[in-house]
Design a protein that fits this description.
about 100 residues; alpha+beta; 3-stranded antiparallel sheet; 2 helices; rod-shaped
C-alpha cells in the first residue's frame, strides 16, 4: 500500500494552465473553421432572404438588395462560440421600397 501512495506522489498529473501557450494550433484551426462557417452561413441566409422576397418595384428593380460587396457589411461584431469569440461581418441588405433606401 505504501508503494502505491509513493508512486502517486511521484507522478505529477496536474497541468498548470497559466503556463500554456496563448493558443495552440488545433484551437486556432477550430476557431478559424468556426469563423468561416459563421461567415458562409450569414452570406447564404442573406441570399435566401433576398430570393424569398424577390419583390420588384414599378421600375423593375428588385426591392430588397445587397448593399454592395465592397462596403456591404455592418461593423464587425464578436460572438461567443464553444471555442472562443469569433468575429462576424453581417452583410448589409437594403429595402428600396416605400420611397426610401432603408437599411435592414
Amino acid at each position: 500500500m505504501k508503494s502505491f501512495k509513493k508512486r502517486q506522489r511521484d507522478k505529477n498529473t496536474v497541468i498548470d494552465l497559466r503556463n500554456l501557450p496563448e493558443v495552440d494550433s488545433l484551437t486556432q484551426l477550430i476557431k478559424d473553421g468556426a469563423n468561416q462557417l459563421v461567415a458562409q452561413t450569414l452570406e447564404v441566409e442573406v441570399e435566401v432572404f433576398i430570393n424569398a422576397i424577390a419583390e420588384r418595384l414599378e421600375d423593375g428593380r428588385l426591392r430588397i438588395v445587397r448593399n454592395g460587396y465592397l462596403n456591404g457589411y455592418l461593423v464587425e461584431h464578436d460572438i461567443m462560440t464553444g471555442v472562443d469569440q469569433v468575429k462576424v461581418k453581417v452583410p448589409r441588405v437594403r429595402d428600396r421600397g416605400d420611397g426610401g433606401e432603408n437599411m435592414l
